[in-house]
Amino acid sequence: VPVVAVVGRPNVGKSTLVNRIIGRRQAVVEDTPGVTRDRVPYDAQWAGRQFVVVDTGGWEPDAKDRAAAIAAQAEIAVATADVVVFVVDATVGSTDVDEAAVRMLRRSAKPVLLVANKTDNAALEIEATSLWSLGLGEPYPVSALHGRGSGDLLDRILEALPDPPPITEPGERGPRRVALVGRPNVGKSSLLNRLAREERAVVDSVAGTTVDPVDSLVEIGGQTWQLVDTAGLRKRVSQASGTEYYASLRTAGAIEAAEVAVVLLDASEPISEQDQRIITMVAEAGRAMVIAFNKWDLMDPDRRYYLDREIDRELRRVPWAIRLNLSAKTGRAVDKLAPALRTALRSWEQRIPTGQLNQWLTALVQATPHPVRGGRAPRVLFATQAGVSPPRFVLFTTGPLDAGYQRFVERKLREEFGFEGSPVEVSVRPRK
Ligand code: GDP
């Protein structure tokens, strides 16, 4: 999601403008010189485009003078935003402080839109033209308070945003795609047969969808699923057709084609290197994952406690995967598969509203700031969710984070928002 930063001196009307952009009609909190307001991102939308507006707030409390403070603020905006909206008070004209910020903004390659705010009437529009002297191009006369000119400004903002990614969403979604993977003999064919028998239906076609001939449509838990590349499982050729290399290629292809993978393990044997490789493949492909321990009927109940500990250790890199203990032979817990797949997919597509995300993040980094390294501690400024399937987050920071601190934020993110069954990617965009 592209980021638009709103920068300017205190009292030029930044928060009023932000309220106007996000379409909120609340009492407006104006900047008060000397008071720090957090940099708060808000979700905004105009003409069908989504973006995030960051209100860069007021003063840096430790800044010695106004010019330095606004330059620092502008610097952060430039580093983190795709487009900068620089706000000047048209009734005052440009000041030394404005000019200091402009020098900084012009050094960057980011598009900057100059807003002459408080242009409440046509007479003031003439005043606004004097702001050409700042060298940021045409000033856009706007009255954030009354709404004058704000539609034009939003159009300009959209034009300046990077091109949106192509829309790949199909009009109507077919069945969800599931890969059933695992090393030979863990019971993949048996599970497929069990599912087909339990549900009394291996559906062969669904109206309006094209299904690859190697796939199977199976009804599980009242929902039709597309099991990718099951031809081998049904005709029992997967083992006959030879090399481990070929099998692993086929597994990788199935994972790639799927949205969620069921990794089948043999509960009566230790987790092998080959099992681990398949689990890693799913995680690295960014797919949702259910790990199913098959042949649970062979489990000795006395081994349970010991085994749980061992499994936790073996699966410590994918603690988020949903685990099921089932038996293709007896049918035990096979009915748990569909709910597990639904949970994993829900997590995989979960979107956290920007406001909620940052409320949580602000509290987290206040309670546990980054440790001081060489006299400095990078600050986490804010975060946005850059995408789904799987969920991807970007942390905007004042510098690179320790790997340990980044993992801490990731872990807390999961604790707060769940994401059961789905990988989550967190990346850091430090200010340069
Ligand atoms: P695939 O290679 O993963 O497709 O594995 P198969 O489905 O061919 O199963 C391998 C062997 O494990 C066969 O002998 C199955 O009968 C047996 N098997 C599969 N599932 C279970 C189970 O839940 N319990 C037990 N006891 N045996 C199973």
UniProtKB/TrEMBL annotation:
It comes from Plantactinospora siamensis. InterPro entries: AAA+_ATPase, G_ENGA, GTP-bd, GTPase_Der, KH_dom-like, KH_dom-like_a/b, P-loop_NTPase, Small_GTP-bd. Associates with the 50S ribosomal subunit. This is GTPase Der. The keyword GTP-binding applies. GTP 2 binds at residues 182-189, 229-233, 294-297. GTPase that plays an essential role in the late steps of ribosome biogenesis. PROSITE patterns: G_ENGA. NCBIfam families: GTPase_EngA, PRK03003.1, small_GTP.
